[in-house]
Amino acid sequence: MDFGRLITAMVTPFHNDLTIDWEQTGKLIDYLIEEQKSDSLVVSGTTGESPTLTDEEKVQLFQFAVKHARGRARIIAGTGSNNTAHSIHLTQQAEAAGVDGVLLVVPYYNKPSQEGMYQHFKAIAGATKLPVMLYNVPSRTVASMSVDTTLRLANDVPNIVATKECVSIDQMAEIAAKAPEQFKVYSGDDIATLPGLSIGIYGIVSVASHVIGSEMNQMIEAFIQGRNQEALERNNKLTPVFKGLFSCPHPVPNPVAVKYALNLQGIAVGGVRLPLVQATEQEQQFIKQLLDSNRS
Description:
single chain; 12% strand; globular
């Protein structure tokens, strides 16, 4: 399974009462595929506020996204958690919904050993025929999956086909160099897209692609085609957006900033569910200036 180079971790649109807005979800899917050139969409990941979605809402999102995308982009369901049995159950529901793959995060809070992580992912992957993308994000989970554990899974479990890594360039480079040829490494940090490509990663699971996906796609294509100077210039132009969406003007929880940016651009995705809160007035002004500067 090739999920493509540019994957968007999609936000979940809400009404004012914070129920899912299905009409706007459809419009967002169209926008991300047609205008922002996403190859795949992650539905019900952290950017989609998965911690505050019920299982019923998640399955409805999987079903809706598959039906609405109509094969124009692959749909990857966020089904990972720190409960192996629950992740198996949700993964099987996602498979029944017709998704193209699942994203499984390193278990958070209970801090499993490397052997525990290996057995967790092996058990979930063994309960489905779907392609699996691992997700290592120690800033959120505290526990970090080692290179050796990632490579062990890549070699031992046939349907574990990729990993999303929010780690150092060194760690991504080692995985990319040592993994089986068909195993794909993705960065989960937008700012690492071009540096990551230069050391052998395959693509990006992006948040910024909600608003600059088309430009990111052009940067990736320029690099792949050997137009390195063009890729560097495009990267330099996009870097303030990469940084700004997570630091406006101080660190802001994802997806607060990107939801506000989308609303500014007329893509009505609503607010965020507690315990997240809306961007402050100062943060809103920063995001407006950030988008204006990128357009100039």
